[in-house]
Design a protein that fits this description.
By secondary structure, the protein is of the alpha/beta class. The protein is 37% helix and 16% strand. A six-stranded parallel beta sheet has the order 2-1-3-4-5-10, sandwiched between helices. Strands 6-9 form a two-stranded parallel ribbon. The structure holds NADP nicotinamide-adenine-dinucleotide phosphate.
Length: 294
């Protein structure tokens, strides 16, 4: 099986590609911005037709949610037009297509878990681009999987965990929003899940995140608890931190679709976070309960 990956050097791609490379019987064609600019749809189409993969795993995206509010055209070109182009090319060569989407396709009202079939109502330019891309993928490609994920953290990227740890070095009290609820997700766990999904013919829309939900403030508190140190979290409402893009307050995603289709669910986010911190050296190898690293 040949797999064509976009966004190979992104936060997810950097964990995904080495994992796929270790899988027996799998050939890889990994791309990133340097060798294929996804805004150049002619080049994208040609590259896919030349490569002729069995699976396209599309992890690249315009991911700066706030900047997207003022760069809506670029966001749309990358997240919608390039995705549609890849989905069309996949259909042309009979490949399956796995598209990474987001909890930001939902408005985040209420406290219920969103099932995959729940109505979408994005609040931001980024969320809208992902939502329209999902629709395009499902209409253009007959072998499509949409994987909505949330709150990614991984070794190779800018993410909430790194930002918080760096702020904890400078600040005693760190304000963090307490009214956005979701599931932090370790890119390594997500990558392992994607590996189990590609090559199956169980097409459709999935939610794939680590288990459990928490507020951003609870996530932050757990990071500090595990990493040790004296900094404290000050829980605040989102209205205290106005951002260019509105974010859903409720990002609880139901993972029933995974179970219903025979795919395993991911470990709890607290377990994932502890592994991440150990693997990045932020806490000691044996320190799973927190405290100051040895
Ligand atoms: N991060 C999250 O919390 C989160 C949450 C929900 C869903 N997702 C989705 O999950 C997927 C992976 O996210 P991530 O955190 O790994 O994203 P990321 O770290 O921002 O990586 C995005 C990748 O896309 C590449 N890219 C950007 N513009 C490109 C272009 N014009 N041509 C080719 N490649 C281009 C980037 O290359 P450069 O490094 O060269 O810019 C980078 O490798 C994305 O689809 C994202 O929307 C992420």
């Amino acid at each position: 099986m040949k797999v064509f990956v976009t966004g190979a050097r992104g936060q997810l791609g950097a964990d995904l590609c080495p994992l796929l490379a270790r899988k027996k019987g799998l050939t890889l064609d990994c791309t990133d911005r340097e060798d294929l600019d996804l805004c150049d749809t002619d080049a994208v189409r040609q590259r896919v037709l030349n490569s002729r993969p069995d699976v396209i795993l599309h992890a690249a995206a315009y991911t700066d949610v706030d900047r997207a509010e003022r760069e809506s055209e670029l966001c749309r070109r990358l997240n919608l037009d390039a995705t549609a182009c890849l989905a069309e090319a996949a259909e042309q060569i009979g490949a399956s297509f796995l598209f990474l989407s987001s909890d930001y396709v939902f408005s985040g009202e209420g406290e219920e878990f969103y099932r995959t079939s729940a109505p979408k109502l994005p609040l931001s330019v980024y969320g809208l681009s992902k939502s329209l891309a999902e629709d395009a993928v499902l209409s253009l490609c007959s072998r499509a999987m949409i994987v909505r994920t949330s709150w990614l953290f991984g070794r190779h990227g800018r993410n909430f965990v790194y930002t918080l740890l760096s702020r904890a070095e400078r600040q005693e009290e760190i304000p963090v929003v307490c009214d956005q609820i979701g599931s932090p997700t370790y890119t390594k766990d997500l990558a392992a899940s994607l590996l189990g999904m590609i090559g199956t013919e169980r097409y459709g829309v999935y939610h794939v995140t680590n288990e459990g939900v928490c507020s951003r403030a609870e996530f932050a508190a757990e990071i500090l608890r595990l990493a040790g140190g004296s900094a404290r979290i000050l829980p605040v409402e989102s209205s205290v931190f106005p951002t260019a893009a509105r974010r859903p307050l409720n990002s609880r995603l139901s993972k029933d679709c995974l179970t219903e289709n025979g795919f395993p669910r991911l470990p709890h986010w607290k377990d994932a976070l502890a592994r991440f911190l150990r693997e990045t050296g932020a806490i000691g190898e044996t320190n799973t309960e927190g405290g100051t690293p040895p």
